[in-house]
Amino acid sequence: MASSTPPADSFSDGAASVSESFNKFFESWLTEQNQHLHDLVSVTTGEPHSDSELCDLVSRVIAHYECYYRSKSQCAKQDILAMLTPAWRSTLEDAFMWIGGWRPSMAFHLLYSKSGHQLEFGLDDLIRGIGTGDLGDLSPGQLRAVDDFQRETIRKDRELTEAWAALQETVADSSMVEVSHATSELMRAARDEEVVGGGDGAIERKAEEALTKKEEGMERILKEADEMRMETLKGAVGILRPMQAVYFLIAAAELHLRIHEWGKKRDVEGPRSREPVAQPSEAVTA
Predict the structure, then answer these.
(1) Which of 2, 11, 217, 232 could form a disulfide with 104 if both were Cys (CB 3.0 to 4.6 A apart)?
(2) Pair 219, 163: CB distance under 8 Å
(3) How many CB atoms sit inside 10 A of residue 40's CB?
(4) Tens digits of residue pLDDT in 151-170
(5) Which H or E run includes 88?
(6) How many angstroms separate the CA atoms of 187 and 156, rounded?
């Protein structure tokens, strides 16, 4: 399958073009993800497939995710804010985002949830000593490996979360306070003197320099977060047997695609009405 990665210069025509171009890329990427989901589901039914065939399919799916993050990194260099507040995502997806994407530790909740469902479904076979080959059939060694990997991922997750919080706090650092005050003073002076337009070029440059520094920090942390997302995905798949990896990637694609669709539908239909909160009745005094 041909790569969806856009040409090197396709995201370099300005912020609006970057956002629009990546939006088109993302829609194309989703179409391919749907096709990969179909391919993954297909190998779980019908004639059995060799481990080599399954590994080849898993590799193609992983490469598809890598394509997404390469393109995203390329776009972030041009417009980091568009990558952190993507217009192609729904508000529902935005509510669950962590530094511009999914939280790496979520992969383990997904793995355990799918494992639990498949374990329950295949419990009778497992009791009779018949392996199911899916995520309900994780070995003790695999469970230990997942647990160790989860602990390490959570540690890195917290470190990056703290780095992101520290960056967010710099919006009120001395440079920002100084330049915001200087700009406000100029605006007040212009208003008092009834001057239209104008401004101090030096102050504007200082404001631009301060904001550019923040954006550079955002780009750096987003890059680390995206690298961590890919490391987590690859690491989880690496612990699993080929067919188990297929089931894990099915669960990941299904969750991503359905949440995206549900969110887009909610955005079109508008906010859900909620039942009014019942008011407590007045206390009756004797």
Answers:
(1) 232
(2) no
(3) 24
(4) 999 999 999 999 999 999 99
(5) none
(6) 44
Better pLDDT: 178 or 273: 178
Ranges assigned E (strand) in 46-119: none
Indicate whether 176 pLDDT > 60: yes
Tokens encoding 55: 């590994």
Single-letter amino acid, residue 218? M
For residues 122-130, give the mean pLDDT. 64
| Separation CA 87–CA 216 (nearest Å) | 21
Tokens 């992969």 locate to 107
* Residue 14 dihedral angles phi and psi, to the nearest 5°: 115, 160
Residue 4: pLDDT band (50, 70, 90) is very low
Question: Would the pLDDT of 127 be above 90?
Answer: no
Residue 239: helix, strand or coil by DSSP? helix
pLDDT, position 187: 86
One-letter amino acid at 61 equals: V
Tokens representing residue 109 in the block: 């909740």
What is the residue whose two structure tokens read 């790496």?
A: 104
Eight-state DSSP code of residue 285 = P
Q: Which amino acid is at 159?
A: E
Give the chain's end-to-end CA distance (angstroms, integer): 79
Distance CA 28, CA 21 (A): 11
Distance CA 205, CA 176 (A): 12
The contacts of residue 196 (CB under 8 Å, 6+ apart) are: 190
- How many CB atoms sit inside 10 A of residue 34's CB? 12
Q: Which of 108, 77, 99 is nearest to 8 (CA)?
A: 77
Sign of CA dihedral 50, 52, 55, 61: negative
Three-class secondary structure of residue 259 per DSSP: helix
43: DSSP letter: T
